[in-house]
Amino acid sequence: MVRELPKTDVVIVGAGWTGLAAAKELADAGQRCVVIERGDWRHDASNFGAPEEHDELKYARRKEHMIDTQTKTLSFRNSSDQTALPMRRLGSFLPGKGLGGAGIHWNGQLWRPLPSDLKMRSHYADRYGEAILDGLNVQDWGVTYDELEPHLDFFDRVCGTAGVAGNLNGETKEGGNPFEGPRSADYPNPPMKASPPLQLFQKTAQEMGYHPFQMPSANVTKAYENAYGAQLHPCTYCGFCERFGCGYYAKADPIICIYDVVKDHENFELRMNSQVLRVEKSADGKTATGVTYLDERGQEVFQPADTVCLNAYALWNVHLMLVSGLGKPYDPETGEGTVGRNYAYQTLAAAGVFFDKEVWSNPFMGAGALGMTIDDFNGDNFDHTDLGFVGGGYISANQTNGRPINYHPTPPDTPSWGPEWKKAVRENYLHHVGIVCHGSSVAVPGNYLDLDPTYKDAYGQPLLRMTFDFPENDRRMSAYVLSKAEEIARNMDNVRAVSTVNRAAEGESYSVVPYQTTHNTGGAVIGTDPTTSVVNRYGQMWDHHNVFVFGACLFPQNLGYNPTGPLMGLAYWTLDHMKNDYLQNPRPLMDA
Amino acid sequence: MPNFSRRAVLLQIGASGLAAVTPGAALAQNRYAALDTQPWSYLDGSEARFLASMADVLIPEDDFPSASQAGVVDFIDLQLAGPYGQGAGLFLEGPFADGTPEQGWQTAHTPASLIRNGIARLEDGGTRLVDLDANDRSAFVERLSKGEGFDLGDVPVQTLFDEIWALVKEGYFSDPIYGGNKDYAGWEMIGFPGAHAYYTDHVDKNAPFPAPPKGIAHVPGTGRSADTARPLRAQTAREEG
Ligand SMILES: Cc1cc2nc3c(=O)[nH]c(=O)nc-3n(C[C@H](O)[C@H](O)[C@H](O)COP(=O)(O)OP(=O)(O)OC[C@H]3O[C@@H](n4cnc5c(N)ncnc54)[C@H](O)[C@@H]3O)c2cc1C
Ligand code: SF4
Question: Which atom of ligand 1 is nearest to the CA of A66?
Fold first, then answer.
């Protein structure tokens, strides 16, 4: 028997960045919110303290903060002529679970999209002609930079972002990113300290005519009271950042930045260890009536609600839509349908820089967002004429993850084990930095998400099936951006050797094994045309007007940036329209 | 090179004075003999000797300890006995198919059963790895790393090698609370100061940070971590002559 609970105003699936932001904003607007989260309750104060949290085996290798593939995974193949098999072990990406979601173990690299990124199709078509987009499902987002700016700015104030503005109200500022869209206000906090390799990268990039700046960081640099009145403290550069929770209250996360200021709100209720199985629909299929979930005792419960918010992370939002029959599934044969369409990822490459003994990188001193970056080869910040690709990526010397089990840089041609390997690890550990090329990812018709015909999860539901390989466009992009990174690396002082790795190298297929990024995007994209988007420009489903969708599943194609800044800008934009329009008069906010 | 294997064994023994007076062949038989008396949690003595031999090819002794000297076999034993070895974090529902390398782990084995069955099949019939001379042990590991020339039934060779090599590195470099990285051997080697981490004043300085390592369970004033992994075990796996 399914137990039915009293109706609530809003039910929110997932207690990560987007779910808790939705709860806070809607609770303040007088809506009774029930947040349903499948993982455990936890808190920075009680769960993430050093030194116990500084356990690389437990958190970075065994991944105790992340999803457990036994209860949640997907199946994967490179192309639709293969048989998808389950991702049996975590690898390429590490979705979160529990209070705060992946937001507790993110790096905190906090970006904004470029104005041109948000109108990618029309921008490229105008500048280069339509042909440059042949074969690509590249689309406009349907929402502009100017519309998102106040919300991007607000999220900077939730996180206490540290950085140097490059464009303040249209005025170019020294030391910042000159390519960024105009900011209405400066960063709330000054940039992080630059380690010696970052200083060298900055000097060389400058000499080569590029525009280096310190990466925008949600590893806070000063004591800071955020927009909700929560208190953050300065980062200690402890080096146990991404994959770990921060016990210093220094990494902006959804628990200390939002949960703490909404937890006692009369309109807020949180149900932990509860797995939402599906969204239920009304008889006519036009609206959702609530969600069915398994409570902490494993009993099936129906929570009716006037409004449903999907905040379960990009991949699992799409999964919930598919198992609930929300929207129309994408069919790669006909190109029709939208749910699962335009799945994209992040295209990563890197140059490794091996210094002589004069340069001490001390890689264990680091922070998730400690980086010196150039944006000269991102988006359309450079001329794409005759390059054969669209998009780009930022190039950044990052000092983020120099922990002893995972970080063993060795110069090219070193054997991969044995005496020479051991010697090389010893000699290079303290004298190396990685320069990352963090590249965009276009959408193409053959990359998509649907349901697996064979494999089922612990709840008897079909696994989400991912079909993905790096499109030719992105292989060319990645090779190009990597060649620029390599040039910088070779021009740096005190460099003995340079190595390179390119995940999207010609002839190599995308693999779910090595970690790349937890930046899965698309599958339920935003737009103004219901035949190519799942939600309208307000994040509202075209087919079910009381379902609102949050997260990187909204991205029509992936940016050359990390997703959380952009997706939180979208979240606050959607919440703004819910609070100030939809909830007073529930209806489709755009005509289909 | 008639003397090669003996020389290799002597090199393998490193600083141990006994090596000079004991014939190489006898040494080989006794190599890792101490492992026999260990109260293993998962491994048996012959599996432990196989893993010690292989681990010491992957991370041999030089100015710094070999893998087995740093407690890597203890570490692996405890890991295989624990949740990771027993398949926590692995989705093991069928049907099973070989898949492509890009699809990752596709065997029905848990890490513990993968390694148990893998070793059993590798050691079936021929000379045991522990009894080979250093040169042949290296050659064996080289072949295993490339997956060349082995048929291990339902144990995928590449997966087996990758799993053991990952465990060896984890055992050499993880916090000593898990039984490896004994006396901070791995951390001393690379200059990693450990879990107690506060670097605000140093991060922008181009200078070494000469702090002795401190693990999660560091015992103040000793240069060691408390042996929280298995208090009963006094000795780690060590090559003996
Ligand atoms: C190691 C790592 C580093 C990262 N670094 C960066 C970075 O530097 N910069 C950046 O921009 N981004 C980064 N990210 C990505 C960032 O964490 C995500 O973009 C962000 O957390 C997304 O927020 P979300 O609310 O959409 O989803 P999540 O934070 O994933 O939250 C979703 C929540 O929903 C819950 N849930 C899912 N399904 C169900 C269900 N059926 N029932 C109930 N609950 C459910 C999950 O348990 C989870 O808690 C990183 C991610 C990882 C893993
Ligand atoms: S590096 Fe800074 S922000 Fe990251 S976990 Fe350590 S103290 Fe927190």
Answer: 53
